[in-house]
Design a protein that fits this description.
Oligomer: heterodimer
Number of strands of chain A: 6
Largest sheet of chain A: 5 strands, mixed
Helix content of chain A: 10-25%
Helix content of chain B: 40-55%
Number of strands of chain B: 5
Number of domains of chain B: 1
Shape of chain A: globular
Strand order of the largest sheet of chain B: 1-2-3-4-5
Radius of gyration of chain A: 13 Å
Shape of chain B: globular
Order of helices and strands of chain A: EEHEEEE
Number of helices of chain B: 5
Strand content of chain B: 15-25%
Number of helices of chain A: 1
Radius of gyration of chain B: 16 Å
Distance between the termini of chain A: 33 Å
Structural class of chain A: alpha+beta
Order of helices and strands of chain B: HHEEEEHHEH
Largest interface: A-B, 26 and 44 residues
Number of domains of chain A: 1
Strand content of chain A: 25-35%
Largest sheet of chain B: 5 strands, antiparallel
Strand order of the largest sheet of chain A: 2-1-5-3-4
């Protein structure tokens, strides 16, 4: 699983990568996930591949990430413009 | 003295290239084609009652998908001040992807967050009508 974040000036950056089934790697992913939410980011899980249906899910806790998800994309919360 | 944003065209171009690849891998090839050819994305609900035109760094425009009537501007921003030297704006393709994701994940919350204005506050209604017409032609 990759944790990515949209950023000004660089596009997306890789924050963390690991296998959530490996305890040590999951711990690192969870820590980074929480850090991004604490920074005010939204976390989106885009579905991968099949079906042509491109929906996305907002997750507010690491445990909400669907099993098998390959990426979580962080981006700033929406604010009125 | 604190670092300040200075526009670097090469950096902006590289960031936009990365952002377009993220758009493609997330929203699909057709979405990237739409963005590159038309300069915006669109979302229409399955029922076909209404839709949105999603412009980079500009308001989202809601429209009646049956009549083509333009409804409102939804002004919403995704600003990130974590790197002052990079500025606060996401690359254009990331900005449209953020709006696309936000509308798909939680449309009500996104619209509640937005400042809502009649069309014409920031966008030229004639331009938006042309864009909607171009979208219809592109989709057929």
């Amino acid at each position: 699983m990759k944790l990515l974040r949209m950023t000004p000036g660089r596009g997306d950056v890789l924050l963390a990568e690991g296998d959530p089934d490996v305890a040590e790697e999951e711990e690192r992913l969870v820590e980074e996930f929480r850090r991004q939410l604490d920074l005010g980011m939204w976390a989106a899980v885009p579905p991968e591949g099949a079906g042509g249906q491109r929906e996305a899910t907002m997750v507010r806790d690491f445990s909400e990430i669907p099993e098998g998800a390959e990426r979580v994309i962080f981006f700033p919360q929406a604010a009125g413009g | 003295m604190a670092p300040r944003y200075a526009r670097d065209p090469a950096r902006v171009r590289r960031a936009e290239e990365r952002a377009r690849e993220l758009l493609r891998s997330t929203a699909g090839d057709e979405a990237l084609q739409m963005y590159e050819r038309l300069g915006f994305l669109s979302i229409e609900h399955e029922g076909g009652e209404y839709g949105y035109l999603i412009y980079p760094q500009r308001p989202i425009v809601g429209y009646d998908a049956r009549s083509g009537e333009l409804l409102s501007e939804y002004c919403v921003r995704f600003r990130d001040g974590s790197d002052p030297e990079a500025g606060e704006r996401l690359p254009d393709a990331d900005d449209v992807l953020a709006k696309w994701l936000a509308l798909r994940m939680d449309e009500d919350r996104t619209l509640r967050t937005a400042n809502v204005h009649p069309l014409g506050r920031q966008l030229d209604p004639a331009m938006v009508r042309r864009d909607l017409s171009t979208l219809r032609q592109w989709q057929t």
